[in-house]
What we know:
The complex is a heterotrimer of chains A (294), B (194) and C (802).
Chain A: E1 7-9, H1 14-23, E2 27-30, H2 36-41, E3 49-52, E4 62-65, E5 68-72, H3 77-82, H4 84-89, H5 91-96, H6 103-108, H7 111-117, H8 123-131, E6 134-139, E7 142-147, H9 148-151, E8 152-154, E9 157-158, E10 165-172, E11 179-186, E12 196-204, E13 210-218, E14 225-227, H10 239-250, H11 263-285
Parallel strand pairs in A: 1-3, 2-3
Antiparallel strand pairs in A: 4-5, 5-10, 6-7, 6-10, 8-9, 11-12, 12-13, 13-14
Chain B: E1 2-7, E2 10-15, H1 22-29, E3 48-51, E4 54-57, E5 70-72, H2 86-94, H3 103-116, H4 122-128, H5 140-155, H6 179-184
Parallel strand pairs in B: 1-5
Antiparallel strand pairs in B: 1-2, 3-4, 3-5
Helix pairs in contact in B: 2-5
Chain C: H1 20-24, E1 40-46, E2 52-58, H2 60-63, E3 68-73, H3 74-80, E4 102-103, E5 109-115, H4 118-125, E6 129-134, H5 141-145, E7 160-168, H6 171-177, E8 180-188, E9 200-206, E10 211-216, H7 223-231, E11 238-240, H8 256-269, E12 273-276, H9 279-285, E13 293-301, E14 307-319, H10 325-330, E15 344-353, H11 367-385, H12 389-396, E16 405-406, E17 412-413, H13 418-429, H14 431-443, E18 447-459, H15 465-469, E19 479-486, E20 492-495, H16 505-517, E21 525-527, H17 545-572, E22 580-582, E23 585-587, E24 594-595, H18 597-606, E25 619-626, E26 644-656, E27 663-673, H19 680-700, E28 730-735, H20 757-769, E29 778-779, H21 783-801
Parallel strand pairs in C: 1-12, 8-29, 10-11, 14-15, 20-21, 27-28
Antiparallel strand pairs in C: 1-5, 2-4, 2-6, 3-5, 7-15, 8-13, 9-10, 9-12, 13-14, 16-17, 18-26, 19-20, 19-25, 22-23, 23-24, 26-27
Helix pairs in contact in C: 7-8, 11-12, 11-20, 13-14, 16-17, 19-20
Amino acid sequence: MKPAPFDYVRPASLAEVCALLAGDEDARVIAGGQTLVPMLAMRLARPAKLIDILRLPELAGIREEPGAVIVGAATRQAQAERDPVIRASVPMLARVLPWVGHPPTRNRGTIGGSIANADPSAEIPLVAVTLGAGIEVATTQGERSVPADDFFMGAMLTAIGQGECVRAIRFPVWPQQRTGVGFFEISARRSDFAFVAAAAQVALDGEDRCVDVALGVGGVGERPLRLDVSSLKGTKLDAGLLSDAVNAVAVELEPGSDLHASAAYRRRVAVVLCVRALEQARDSAAGKSPAGAR
Amino acid sequence: MKVELRINGAIRAADLEPRKTLLDTLRENFLLNGAHAGCEHGVCGACTVLLDGEPVRSCLMFAVQADGYDITTIEGLAPAPGELGVIQDAFCETHGLQCGYCTPGMILAAHALLQHTHTPTREHIVEAISGNLCRCTGYGQIIEAVQFAAERLRKANTPRAQHGSQHHAQSGHDAPVEGVLEAAEADEPVVEAK
Amino acid sequence: MSADPAAFRFVSTNRRVREDRRFVAGQGRFVADVALEGMLHVAILPSQHPAARIVSIDPSAALAIPGVHYVLTGDELAAATDPLMNGLDTPKVQRHPLAVGQVRYAGEWVVAVVADSRALAEDAAEHVHVTYEPLPFAMNAEDALKSDSPPVHPAHGSNILLDRTFVWGEVEKHFAESPRQLSFRVTWGRSSTVPIETFGVAASWNPWREMLDVWASIQMPKYPDQIARALRIPANGVRVHQDVDVGGSYGVKRGIKQTVLVAHLARRLGRPVRLIEDRLDNMGGGDAHGPDRIFDVDVAFSDAGIVKSMKMRALDNAGAYAGRAPFQLGKPIGAIVGPYRIESVQYRAQSVTTNKAVQEAVRGFGQAPTNYAIETAMDKVAASLGLERIEVRRRNFIRKDEFPYLIPSGSTYDSGDYHTVVDKVFAHIDFESMEQERDRLRASGLLAGIGIAACLEPSGANSAFEPLLNEKNTTTTWMDSCRIMIDALGFVTVTIHNTSSGQGHETLVATVVGEVLQIEPDLIRVIRPDSLACLPSNSPVGSRMAIMLGGAAFHAAQKLKTKLARIAAHQFGVGTDRVLFASGSVTNPKDGKQLGWAELVNIAHRNFHLLPEGMEPGLEVTHVMQVPTGGTLPKDGRVQMYPCHSFEFHVVLMAIDPALGKPEIRRYVIGHDCGTVINPHIVRGMTLGGVAHGLGAALLEEFVYNDEGQLITQSFMDYPMPSSHEVPEVEIVHHCTPSPYTVFGQKGSGESGYLGAPAAISSAINDCVAPLGISFNKLPIRISAIGDAIADAQQGKQEQAK
């Protein structure tokens, strides 16, 4: 399983990367390569040119701004996993990262790479969609920001056009003190692509009433979906309300069937995991999580 | 393309196609046959090497991407020809292998773990080797080997080597100790129905 | 033979497995490590069609690429080589390494391209233009039985390779007499052992010496013979290098088609050639799939749960060529009643061709699927009577005092003590507390259950299933050998004559020889000559090496010990039976005179004048050993299959979250009796690894073909194998019932764990879901199937409640 031949370049600037991409429709970027290289090996992808962006300074770094954490696209998943800023300010991302692939793939795979790959059951895109992150895309004409929900268009299909490259992901930071996250996924083996994944974030006021809630589901359909459970705001998120709210939005889900899981399974388990994720987020926000909030 | 790689402390040069993987380069250009091809699509881990001390899949890297890192292969672990390192010896003591094909990758993954801690829990060990498939052993004696090595390292006289790194990735500070351990402690889905 | 480990000095002690040393340093020598000067590389172009006539092959564009040396087609290869051997008498089902005239499964190898590098060969393969005319195809075994199914081999006339019914005992009478019967079907999905190293082979032809040298990742009896036959060269013109380390095999690495292909190319091109399968080559066209089998079973039993008779129809989907699949239906005949006293059996073995890839011998050679069917029968008998499943086992087990025990199909089980193993396991678990744990899990809202499985591991190997299924085959010899040399300086070298894939044969042999000669095993060197310098061997199949290699080594060492004693006795002037051999020295107890090892070696090698009359100088012996209990042809459909029978008993505590359907093993205990254990580390490793394999087959692994005949599980992304997260800690409870047929009482353990784990895991899942009135009868049991079945059952209950 050897790739078809390609040229390899390692530009020194993002502008150069975009120019190269704009000039050659058979050029592709490579960062960590954990999803691209298997495709090259199986000759499912045959770029004429690989543009290595892993070490570009413009894609590096994790920085905080008011209300957001901006993660450079070439940030390796393993770095993000241990980063104190992410742990403190984007707990949902910190929470899912141990479930992304395996330790060796996280040592090379990047946050931006997972976003650009857009696998329907991938955890990092799920977080981006659930939190309403902004995908910052460099182009030959400057930069544009695409809301995650618009960025993921279908299975392995994103809004990146020719001549464009993901530069960073802007994750919103919730201001509330009492914030908790929940995450569950189900797969045949730990670290396989999930059949279904659910991620939730909840913020509570001093009386344990919900002041903000976000819920997303992955593996059910062509792309991760943010589910509108805003009806839960103002409530105490008791089990019955959670179940009703999730069931109400679950009717929109259009899961597919494949070797690994039937559509019926995905739909049913999506509801279960969404409810559990919300419960876990709620308990974590209230400080009652037995494992301790992360 | 010409490339210079630092492998087991020595600079090695090669002139090769960009599409040549680090795995194939190690084996064919440098005759370091300890890294093995099991799947060539990043699942089995038989190709594992250390990049700046952390396990990566050498089948998912091209040699032209591998400059500027400290690459460690299994051949770099033995203290001297004919001598075994502590972890290697532990695998012999517990029979943590049978056919030997996954073994270099397993040992390097264990090595990386034991650089972070000498008191890994069983869950830490399971997580650390979860990216390395073995079809012979069922993992039991492998886990025991890592536990045995950890115990010996705890009792050893020599201080553990500093986890230094000279990689050129400018994306921030070196990975602190906790990362790989926290992955092991990631919450399992609560398996209790309501 | 004594079962007391204290009777041994080295056998049964925890010695390091010496082979480990080179592997932990990355110093194994696998076939891909073998570098031959001027070596060329092969890539394969497979068929995309499940069945099609090959209309044309145009290699011109590929050959025009610099660095490409050759493009080999099936027609050329078929003209230059004989078809691969069939075990059955089915001459019209011909198999060649490359498709000839038509392709018969998607993934079948059509063209082989040879180039300076593998990458270049793959580039060139894309430029070979093949045109096809699609043909009808059949994927399903039950369809293939029908007369209107498109035959995979039209010249053969149908898709039926084998359809043979055996009746052992008064089956109809027993069924008529029995107050109770039940029938069921179970299906064993097509999986395999899938070693992490794919198959690879390198060959080199020397026209000056007329010698073909072969290096391969091989585990195959009669490999050099089959190479010679196919290539039409003398067998002593084939030299297989046995010192190649094999990266796992568990039965499947019988790469004869790959080898014939590469050997032909080496001869044709006058340069060494190698083929290392990549994972896609291997999964789709390596022809190393496993049993793909439907069992229809009827049992007749009493109100007390005693099973008197059994009818079993085993329908196996062999794939496009015969391979070893039909015989994988035959070997289980040697343990067709499992560990039970079933009095009569009717067994119908059907093997059909379809347009799937080919099966190879998978660990246990059909025993694991058969055990799954037998154990399901016992669980269902228990359920129908409301009896405890373990109680039904106890009532049906062959008793310790009944051995050697003759089963209806003609095999005698050598020894066993099944009741004691079960008792030991239950004591270890404290079964009552396990039941309480199960109840506690149930009370918490989970589904929970306990699975059990009891089964045998026939070991020692014998190809008696071949003459049983093909009367033209008269093979009754199944041998192995050992040679021991004590050199002129007194150092011991032992030769073994097979490749190994992790079984620790060097350690095994050194331990045995050390035990007999009473010298330190670590001082004994073990080497593997090439096949021309080898004594006969049948390779490590059928869980045979502890018995056969251990046996041959033992006997050779005994011969050497006797020779040393005789040399000394001659010096002392007494009969050989008057002297004492201890730790390499020989003493005359009468006067205390002693000759040490060095002195004896000196006499043997240098003092011919001191040797007894007629004795050969030097200290070298060989021993060639026939399999114990082997040597007779089948009679009336009955034959002794394997000599020894190890026993295992699994207990699995399982929990399932009903909302998710994911089975989680909470505890796994296996009782294991393989007689005397020569090296405990090795045996433990086999058992733990076998359980992991069985877990994969039960829950995760399957080669799936869709309705268009395409293999949709082509890589490790879709064929999930257990990682460290999926395999639970397995507790092994050991027991030793020695075999009366072997030198130390040892039996085989190479298949342990795998033979019973799928049955045990299936039993556990079914125990979890039994309260919902559902069960699963097909492996692998996927999470989604469990989830959906639970949901449907709960839905049904809700609707009933309304």
